[in-house]
tripeptidyl-peptidase II (Calocera cornea HHB12733), 602 residues
Amino acid sequence: MLLLPLLALLLPPRALASPLSRAHTSAYSIKESLPAPPPGWAHHSPAPPDHPLRLRIGLTQPRFGELEQALWDVSTPGSDRYGLHLGKEDVEELIRPHEDSLALVDAWLEEHGIPLSALSRSPAQDWVTLTLPVSLAEALLDTTYHVYRHTPSGDYLVRTLQYSLPAHLHAHVDVVQPSTTFARLAPKRSTLHGAPVALASASTPAIPASCNHTITPACLKEIYNVGAYVPSATSGNKLGIAGYLEEWANMNDTNWFYQDLLPQAAAAGYMFSVELINNGTNSQNESDAGGEANLDVQYAGGVSFPIPNIYYSTGGSPPFTPDLNTPTDSNEPYAEFLAYMLAKTDKELPRSLTTSYGDDEQTVPYSYAVRVCNEFAQLGARGVSVMFSSGDGGVGDGLGPNDQADGPTTCLTNDGKNTSSFLAGFPASCPYVTAVGGTYHESPERAVPFSGGGFSKYFPRPLYQAAAVGGYLAANPAYLSLYEGLFNPFGRAYPDVSAQSNNFTVNLGGQFVLEAGTSASCPTFTGIISLVNDKLITSGRPALGFLNPWLYTVGHYGFNDITIGNNPGCFTDGFNATVGWDPVTGWGTPDFAKIAKIVVPY
Ligand SMILES: *[C@@H]1O[C@H](CO)[C@@H](O)[C@H](O)[C@H]1NC(C)=O
Ligand SMILES: *[C@@H]1O[C@H](CO)[C@@H](O)[C@H](O)[C@H]1NC(C)=O
Ligand SMILES: *[C@@H]1O[C@H](CO)[C@@H](O)[C@H](O)[C@H]1NC(C)=O
Ligand SMILES: *[C@@H]1O[C@H](CO)[C@@H](O)[C@H](O)[C@H]1NC(C)=O
Ligand SMILES: *[C@@H]1O[C@H](CO)[C@@H](O)[C@H](O)[C@H]1NC(C)=O
Ligand SMILES: *[C@@H]1O[C@H](CO)[C@@H](O)[C@H](O)[C@H]1NC(C)=O
Ligand SMILES: *[C@@H]1O[C@H](CO)[C@@H](O)[C@H](O)[C@H]1NC(C)=O
């Protein structure tokens, strides 16, 4: 309240400054447009003019280049600044918008009758958020919002296919959401056996031979060479698990899981904690626990016990019902979660973070994907290892040369041209995250056919993987002609690593079921990284932070190279797993003892 008179005093001179008044008159031009709604979405009706939208305006970050350089410096072994992760204020300084951007955007909003007191801002001021009726958003963005229906799920969203900004604002605003983003975060898992499965032998950890078919925490510790390593529960190291879509993890199921499969965790009363973001859910009602959430917490905790785990339940919003004019429709994947995480103090941040959700890269508008990816860079610069599942469709839809499609192929571009294309996954394709693919079986461990992999069409290849990926393409030149036009050979390639991903024993709704997907490998791999961070922290060293520059230089020597298998999709065989890095399993699966020796040699 105290701020209001102050702002009022400041405004008139600012609005009168000459560059601003000239700027006021600039005409609108298109900021972003889509040729058509993405596959699965159909136009339903015009948006009700009084429907409230929670608009987020992302201002440009002119010093992002410096932030990126800092990320490489603190993450690359051998650099003077290796391990010297940035603090919250350091990062905020590097993503702060230019004063002109703040002034011009404020002036534009005020011109439309929006008082500055109605705006909320992120700590770095790079996001401006306000709630306003559709009619006002339409005037602001020279657009028309519509209600679109997602045919498979019956969900509704208020979106537009095109929006504009005054020409003078284009250089000051990266994105305005919600507008053209139709992305629907999908969990990367499937339940193989919904019916109860019998445990190999109840109340005793499964023996390694059974690990060839069904996975338990004991199997993973065996396969990934954890040995008798016991991490500290109190070093300050924490593991974060991101959950979306009203999924929450069931504590009774998880306790039951530990009683049968990790008795020392049950005996210690080990349990994840929960933080709710944007009205996320955590009902603990046995009948509607999330299959994804239970898988994630049971395996992240199963591998990293007794390191504290936190489940972040981010609410989407209740699905918009056009007839009822439901007053919330934010449903912007990542935005709420990232704002929440980046506002945390350095001490509060988990050192590793697993997310088993994603979407096809092309369904995420380019500007929004870049912005979200840049926010993961901020977490990396602050020393958080950010992991994402690589996806469950191989190079696209998971269909091999001999498979039958049960509908029109989805392996087409959505630029209005319907060109055949592999489908990269996002955020796995973001160069500032570590993408986790999938394996199965042991002795030998091999690529699972659904392991998501390939090349981004949005993000160019980062320097850290130039040699590894260039080497793969040089050693397998047939792909350049065989798959010409289907993938971008100059793109950021993924996954970076992999882990077991099939037949995971999960307690869900009081029953043991089997689940599969890179949803299983991501929390598993993150659990191992959390153990490595424990080793580092208890040796007085900084945590690993953003993994990739380390992984592609020295880290990969601590991985089991996976050389068997391939990842079919789009009626092709996909890519082959080979010696060294490949776009099926990355560098392979972690060997904890070897990695621990690399990071703490003596
Ligand atoms: C998964 O587990 C089921 C039930 O134990 C088993 O029949 C199947 O062979 C397993 N799949 C693989 C790929 O090992
Ligand atoms: C909670 O878990 C125990 C096993 O640990 C089980 O016996 C009990 O039925 C579960 N409670 C509910 C409400 O599912
Ligand atoms: C939060 O969720 C609850 C239950 O899902 C709902 O009743 C309530 O209206 C929501 N609150 C907000 C602010 O969206
Ligand atoms: C639990 O969920 C079920 C199904 O959604 C519902 O019928 C039941 O009333 C809920 N129980 C409680 C205690 O909320
Ligand atoms: C692209 O494919 C979609 C779905 O199959 C179809 O509706 C659309 O008309 C096609 N567009 C072009 C330009 O062929
Ligand atoms: C694991 O199962 C696969 C497929 O059935 C088999 O080829 C392999 O030999 C088995 N490995 C072990 C160690 O039993
Ligand atoms: C991939 O591996 C299969 C099986 O080993 C082999 O037949 C095929 O030629 C390989 N493809 C390429 C492009 O190297």
